[in-house]
Amino acid sequence: MLRTKDILDEKDKRLRQISEEVTFPLTKEDKAQMKRMVAYLRDSQIEEKAEKYDLRPGMGMAAIQLGIPKRYITIVNEIDFDEETGKHTFETYIVMNPKIISHSEEMIYVELGEGCLSVNREVEGIVPRYARCTVEGYDMDGHKIRIRAREELSIAFQHEIDHLNGILFIDRIDQKNPFKNQEKYRAI
Ligand code: NI
Prior knowledge:
By secondary structure, the protein is of the alpha+beta class. It has a single domain, classed as Peptide Deformylase (Alpha-Beta Complex). About 20% of the residues lie in helices and about 30% in strands. It has helices at about 30-45, 45-50, 150-165; strands spanning about 60, 70-80, 85-105, 105-110, 130, 130-140, 145-150, 185. The strands form two sheets. A five-stranded antiparallel β-sheet has the order 1-2-3-6-7. The protein has a three-stranded mixed β-sheet with strand order 5-4-8, with helices on one face. A hairpin with a 5-residue loop joins β6 and β7. It is globular and about 45 Å long. Bound molecules: nickel (II) ion. Nickel (II) ion binds next to α3.
């Protein structure tokens, strides 16, 4: 299983490279890696597991964060939590060669600050993101898929696709004025 120490830190130059397109069929190793990524993200969002295995919580991961320069991403989005039973419900996305094909004019940002499994510190500032976007890519079998994402999920896709292009969220924060143009964007 993946552990937090397997994830590259922001100082690692490999995070700055442009990842290469995935070709099909996928290798067994790639498929196994994707499943490990999803398992990590899911477990990291379940408190007992995160504590037990010392996992930093995250909702998305790009292959390059494990040092694999291939264009695929995984996102695990919690859509429901039942307090009575303690049951989490997640939706999972594993997307090869993802591309944003359209997006809203409206832009949003995470009020508490965006986070990244490769950035192990609090970073203040606004990361402007499209409030809604449509992502096209391929599933693990090579079938074309299209996802309409909004709000937090939309941010997650933009964040992970940035990783494939060597971009970290901290790059998108204005260095001189981290809260520049705040009034132009909606906080979520
Ligand atoms: Ni990240």
